[in-house]
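dumping the sequnces here before i forget
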Amino acid sequence: MAEEIPATEETAARETLFEAPPLAEQERMAEAILFASPEPVSIAELNARMPHGCDGAQAVASLQKRYEGRGVRVVRVGEAWAIRTAPDLGYLMQKETVEQRKLSRAAIETLAIIAYHQPVTRAEIEEIRGVTVSRGTIDQLLEMEWIRFGRRRMTPGRPVTFVVTPSFLDHFGLESPRDLPGLKDLRAAGLLDNRPVPGRSEEPEEDEDADETTANMFEDD
Amino acid sequence: MAEEIPATEETAARETLFEAPPLAEQERMAEAILFASPEPVSIAELNARMPHGCDGAQAVASLQKRYEGRGVRVVRVGEAWAIRTAPDLGYLMQKETVEQRKLSRAAIETLAIIAYHQPVTRAEIEEIRGVTVSRGTIDQLLEMEWIRFGRRRMTPGRPVTFVVTPSFLDHFGLESPRDLPGLKDLRAAGLLDNRPVPGRSEEPEEDEDADETTANMFEDD
Amino acid sequence: MSEDDLNADLPAPDGDGDRPMSVAERLAAEALIVDVEGFEGPLDLLLTLSRTQKVDLRKISVFRLAEQYLAFVERAKTLRIELAADYLVMAAWLAFLKSRLLLPPDPEEEGPSGEELAAHLAFQLERLQAMRDAAARLMARDQRGRDFFVRGHPETVTRVRRVAYSANLLDLMQAYARLRTRDEFRPFVMDRDNVFTMEQALDHMRGMIGFAGTWTDLASYMPPGWAEDPMRRRSVTAATFAASLELAKQGQVEIRQSDTFAPIQLRRREGRKNG
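..and the predicted 3d for all of it:
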């Protein structure tokens, strides 16, 4: 990088050895460090992490100038520095604060049955799960737009059926419901082996607990 | 942007209401959104989060140009975009380095075979490696979210296939599976062909299907 | 097993004609034997052996490779090293390949020629090597979290809390697997598809008996569609017979049978014909 500066005598040799990178390069370094660090970075830490001879304070100052008016800014937080979104664009950040929560066991089982057996009626889901399906579970899946109502079944009572939606396929990275792996594939991938430790109760607040323990007993074949 | 079509009276008012911000402003928005998200953001999501009428693709393209040669870069990951530190500055980041999970040789080879031959069935992986693939290997790669189930192969038994994921691309800094190192040479050398074992007739009636599966994904070049 | 044992057992310069083995070759052979556990199957071993030929994989002599492999298996045998079955299967196949390569092709014989088989093996080795090189190049790439980094501080500008439920395909499949494997083990339930109950037979006969003024064969009381399948025929015969006994007990029919195993006949019992 900066090795080509001609210098005289042996001081030059020492200088070259400890030559600091050009300011533009120092600015790049500060930029990468501030970007990757979860916490604001102090000038002292910056100097410690950058190569010998670098001037962290100067690098941050010119970085700050560079980001003026941009979508993100270099801001001072106490004694340290950080990159933050420009405050006027805060409204764009709403989606980042979505709280991810795992689907309940009842919901994921219901969803799995719909995906593998669609179109399927509520009674059929209950028959497969061996427990009644609460209204909330179906409602939740409908609201997430992972399932929708299918055709009515042409049997007495003409019950509605459920099918999965394109947005379900999208979420699970499937091109079509036919691409769902079968039991044989699951076994081959080792997914049928994950036997819970006996006696360890999972999600004790759920109603299907008894159900689960009997299921586990049979899980290995 | 097609908003400048002159319109009359109250339609004009409505147009103004939905006027897209100037490109420089759109670039700022894309910048803020990409900076804020550790995971790649798709153009669709970008468009959904930016005000009506914005062109996320264009904003990202000009943003990418702006960051050329800087300490962080705008990179493409499959169909999405992300900001990542420049790889030549990795040595400054010891503090941020995460302990990489040690992959077994079997897992690494299996991953490479899936990446280069995708979509590929388990039997094909075993044929290439000459040994059975242990359950744990596939399981581990699935769990790391570097591979996922692809379409089923339209051959007898309809076996599932495996393909690599966007998070695999992100991890290895690849824009798309086409950018895998040496892919072209391997293909030119015929080493990615599905060459049947001589004497073993392999479902000749499925020929078109076999074609389709090897061709897909890498088709466009 | 000590080094001396190995050396003592490795005098024969097999594989390469008369030329005695060089020290390096002997060390290599030893390493192979000792490391057999370290190989990932016969193809991996063949690939390692092929390196001793020091040629481009495309120009490899499969014949010589087969000999090397068979020599390896022989040595393992003399050293009483247990080889896994797939190594022995490969040995048998390579012996076959060797004989095919030696003999002039028999026009009568079916199947691929020795050359075709050899070419395929060479292709497999080249492909495996290519995949290993590709894997090494892949792992040598700049990696996320090692060479380049993501944003360390995800923004939390406005905390608009919205709950998004998530699940991945693994969760979904595991849930389904859990349900389905439970299903496979449902307690045994009698399959009632092919069973005709006495109640059904009674209902059926009561409908017909009014017309049976004359002696009629019991078999004609069986409902249609039950005589073809042996399992159903057994069930319907038993049920109808039991039902006819029940009707006789109630005084509604009379039953007769002329001889052992002769057809059973019944008719409606008239109120006036008492006794």
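Chain A touches chain C through 53 residues (CB under 8 Å).
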